[in-house]
Amino acid sequence: MQCQELLVRGLSLGMILGGVMHFICLMKSHAAYGRYVDTSGSSMMVPARLAWFLQEIPALLVPLLLMMTTDGNHGTGKHLMLWTFCLHYFQRSCIYSLLTKGRPYPFNIMLTGVVVCSINGFLQAHYLLHCATFHSTWFSDACLLTGLIIFFLGMGINIHSDHILRNLRNPGEISYKIPRGGMFEYVSGANFFGEIVEWLGYAVATWSLPTFAFAFFTICFIGPRAYHHHKFYNEKFKDFPRSRRSLIPFIF
Questions:
Q1: Distance between CA 93 and CA 113 in Å, rounded?
Q2: Distance between alpha carbon 148 and the CA centroid of its chain, in Å?
Q3: Of 95, 158, 190, 222, which is most buried by a Cβ count within 10 Å?
Q4: Is 148 helix (H, G, I), strand (E, B) or coil?
Q5: Strand, helix or coil for residue 251
Q6: Is the separation of the CB atoms in 176 and 187 below 8 Å?
Q7: What is the pLDDT of residues 172-224, one digit of tens each?
Q8: Which residues of 130-140 are buried (b: 16+ CB within 10 A; e: fewer)?
Q9: Phi and psi for 63 in degrees, rounded to 5?
Q10: Which segments cross the bilayer (predicted)?
Q11: pTM summary value
């Protein structure tokens, strides 16, 4: 398959525009899943573990399918970055989904997630396999090394923060608690912070429009959620640490 430059550019710009629209909407009202879901409504609900699996798995399967159906040797660099992308979605779809203790998930939001993950999986895989160019000195490139370090640092923060959240309550408890430990000492949305750091590192390592577009979309989508979580904790708990920020340590 040839590089579809126009399609890549269009999908990337569409992701940026979608990010801006999501940011505007989500700063005014939070997305109705997790603690904000209305289980008394008429929306069809999906068990959290199944919903997370179905929502995230396309971003893993689509790149794998493109790799298997693409002929020729596309270089170590392209496959390294694509496997890095797939690693995140393997963890989210095959590990996180089995461990989550979240509430039932609205079907319409899950379906939207399936579409977004499918499109983004295609965009990242097609760009890396057919459009990206990596020079012979790429492995010693400062952007690659810096980006990969940032990516795995963010992934570690994300996984550790999810672990803290899962273990906040004892079996049978339903009340909310203040998360403590790790990056939660600095921000209310430590898990979101970690994921944003991941994709910023990925974008730095590849230095391309599609990867920066995805990092931007991630910030716009889960950044407001961190803001609403922070607001929730401040309103609910009188002993909530006042030095803690929403998403960016010491700043916001």
A1: 12
A2: 16
A3: 190
A4: helix
A5: coil
A6: no
A7: 676 788 999 999 999 999 999 999 999 999 999 999 999 999 999 999 999 99
A8: bbbebeeebee
A9: -60, -40
A10: 7-30, 50-68, 105-129, 138-159, 199-222
A11: 0.91
CA 246, 249, 250, 252 dihedral sign is negative
CA–CA distances in Å: residue 177 to residues 11, 53, 189, 234, 240 = 40, 26, 14, 12, 10
* Spatial contact of 158 and 198, defined as CB atoms under 8 Å apart: yes
CA distance 140 to 55: 36
- Smallest Cα–Cα separation from 80: which of 140, 143, 148? 148
* Contact indicator for 198, 214 with CB cutoff of 8 Å: no
b/e string for 37-46 if b means 16 or more Cβ within 10 A? beeeeebebb
Residue 46 is which amino acid? V
d(CA 22, CA 220): 6
Q: Which residues of the chain have pLDDT under 70?
A: 34, 36, 38-42, 72-75, 136-140, 172, 174
Q: Which stretches does DSSP call E strand in the chain?
A: 45-46, 105-106
Q: Are 172 and 209 in contact (CB under 8 A)?
A: no
Other CB atoms within 10 A of residue 125 CB: 23
